[in-house]
Amino acid sequence: MPFHRPPEIEMIRAEAQGYQYQPPRQSRREIEKIIPRECRDAFIVETGNRWMELGEREPAAKMLFGEFWYRGELCILFADTNIGKSILATQIGNSIALGKRIAPFALHAKPAKVLYVDFELSTKQFYRRYRNATEGNHNFTDNFYRAQFNHDHEMSDTYANYDQYILAGIEYKIRLVNATVLIIDNITCLRGGTENASIALNLMKSLKRLKADLGLSVLVLAHTPKRRNPGSPISTDDLHGSKLLINFADSAFAIGASSTHHRLCYLKQIKQRNTAQVYGQDNVCLCRIHKPGNFLQYRFMGNSPESPHLRSRNQLNPELLAQKAAQLSAAGLSQRQISQQLCVSLGYINKLLRS
């Protein structure tokens, strides 16, 4: 057996000779004696240059909904209730299934099979959104599948909890229809309405595993808190429940309600990994819900800073807002200048000054 000096002696010798002591490397066999077999493959280790080679070989990420959502991502879309999350998510799913982009956003992927898991709408509610008396029913492509929870089916004892049961059911349907895109509307139904951090963590782990195992692109809908301050810019803090949800997501974007008009909304990027932030606080994307024919959808109308669409303190009291508008008008400001100063629409200022 070769002789080895104690590490303390080697450190003293190295210091005396002016070099840094390097402890001897353990052999793979010595390491395997003390490290359990179960954890040996938990990490893949390569040199930095090898990772660069591997990264160069991987194809560039393809857009599914412009810079908001890329193929292979677990993305979260969140907004207040009754603002139209489901309308936008269905529009995005239909776009991907057709392979036809939603202008002005890019779609670089070929038509794909989409599974939309709908915990929100009843059959009749869904039906009403996508028909009208003149044109009848909207004709969805066969690539678009919608799943609705079967309340008559009871959970078996095979599953430890409700979330495990639901995710197993979703995985079965994904495999059955060979879907590569999954949209879940919404995540609160999976979490049983709870804000428990450990449940959020386990849920996101399960969705990431599902994404990796089946090669999916996943869009999950979620709510903002009921008491969100409408005067503050939308941020990660506005996702209902634990911030672990957004920490585990690859990307996230939100729909905000504009204070300038009750039908005007905007989209804002909250988190992104495959792109720089394009639709941030200085450049949100404006949109309105409309129904041309038999398909309820968002129509996109350009870009704007977020600040004019946030509710100012004056807007909390219409009487005070009218008084302020009258004062500014008497001081010689134009209606457009008053509109910009009070962060409300030009039409609303005109209405206040005429009343």
Question: Topology, please?
Answer:
Elements: H1 7-17, H2 28-34, H3 48-57, E1 63-65, E2 69-70, E3 74-79, H4 85-98, E4 114-118, H5 123-129, E5 131-132, E6 136-137, E7 144-148, H6 162-177, E8 181-185, H7 187-191, H8 197-214, E9 217-223, H9 244-248, E10 251-257, E11 264-271, E12 284-290, E13 297-304, H10 318-330, H11 335-342, H12 346-354
Parallel strand pairs: 3-9, 3-10, 4-7, 4-8, 8-9
Antiparallel strand pairs: 1-2, 5-6, 10-11, 11-12, 12-13
Helix pairs in contact: 6-8, 11-12
Plain-language structure description:
The chain is an alpha/beta fold and about 350 residues long. It folds into three domains: about 5-55, no CATH class; about 65-310, P-loop containing nucleotide triphosphate hydrolases (Rossmann fold, 3-Layer(aba) Sandwich), CATH 3.40.50.300; about 315-355, no CATH class. It is about 35% helix and about 20% strand. It contains twelve helices and 13 strands. The chain has helices at about 5-15, 30-35, 50-55, 85-100, 125-130, 160-175, 185-190, 195-215, 245-250, 320-330, 335-340, 345-355, and strands at about 65, 70, 75-80, 115-120, 130, 135, 145-150, 180-185, 215-225, 250-255, 265-270, 285-290, 295-305. The chain has a nine-stranded mixed sheet, sandwiched between helices. Strands 1-2 form a two-stranded antiparallel sheet. A two-stranded antiparallel ribbon has the order 5-6. Helix 6 runs parallel beside helix 8 (about 195-215) and helix 11 packs across helix 12 (about 345-355). The longest helix is centred in the middle third of the chain and has 18 residues, at about 195-215. It starts with 6 loop residues before the first helix and ends with a helix. The mean pLDDT is about 85.
